[in-house]
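Supplementary Note 2. Why include the ligand at all?

Several targets in our set were suspected to adopt different conformations when bound, so apo predictions alone were not considered sufficient. For every target with a known small-molecule partner we therefore ran a joint prediction. The input for MRU is given below.
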Amino acid sequence: MTDHSVPVLRWTDAPEGPAVLLLDQTRLPAEEAELRCGDVPSLVSAIRSLAVRGAPLLGIAGAYGVALAAARGEDVPKAAGVLAGARPTAVNLGYGARRVEGAHGRAVAEGAGPEAAAAVALAEARALHAEDAEASDRMAEHGRDLLLNTLLGDRRGARDLRLLTHCNTGSLVSGGGGTAFAVARAVHRAERLERLWVDETRPLLQGARLTAFEAERDGLPYSVLVDGAAGSLFAAGRVDAVLIGADRIAADGSTANKVGSFPLAVLARHHGVPFLVVAPVTTIDPETPDGAAIEIEQRSAEEVTANAPKGAEAYNPAFDVTPAELVTAIVTERGVVSPVGRDGIAAVCSAPPTG
Ligand code: MRU
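The joint prediction is reproduced in token form.
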């Protein structure tokens, strides 16, 4: 996993009282600055500005945010609701917030006083944080083995792999090594990565700013490309597999991820290239029946109109949905879902936690 001189997310009790400390991702790669969130509104603002981002890390942030409300003696269910609603698409955010709210509520119901219940909430947030780190390791192993032994072992023989990724899915989005990027890193450590193609990921450049930052630090061979250049790479036969993360996976396996993921899935299918989604089971939402039911965050016009005439209107969805039939496999910490569909999703959700 990438070592950051400023930790991606940590809890502190001192010296100015409880707070969630974040590596401010809006300032990367130029500067590794820590952002102190001493109350729920400041954490919500960090979530909305993408200072803290990426589905698994949003879950961890939501969890610590509820622990923060409890430590401050605030209305915990209200705080959980506000945090869960800060961004709509990544299901992990609500999962983390509601899980800690539940632990706190049970402690109160069993007679715990405010301080003891706050300690229970913090312990639950720490548990989720540790589980996410563990899940990263398992996903990396499952994804690496799937690529090297099953999907591409025969086809490419001894040839090293050229993997294409979108957005940022490494240690900046996780308690551990991340999701899709963790698989690429594991392939690199197995000395089988020829190149990681990094989509710059318009408009906020999570690929060019953040994935390139992680690839540089971890010593992966990588190239940044504008999102629209992916088609020519596929056409030239220079992509062996696509690896992306997910913000929400519906019960049918349809997957919401950073806008631009769906076109990659279409390209991959057209060129017969495997398209892999790597995500922890906490990103699967059995309550969302299909892709059409996933709420897609719409962001401000200013993010895309900097070079347009004054007053230009914009279409700026943060995510798009890839239908299940275009996904070759979903790699989770509990194992691989393939073929992707309702049965496989239900099976992995009910599998034992360590796959
Ligand atoms: O808007 P962002 O930067 O939070 O979007 C993040 C993504 O789309 C990631 O690909 C997704 O959360 C998976 S991260 C493991």
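The mean pLDDT is 96. The longest strand covers residues 193-199. Comparable summaries for the other entries are listed in the accompanying table.
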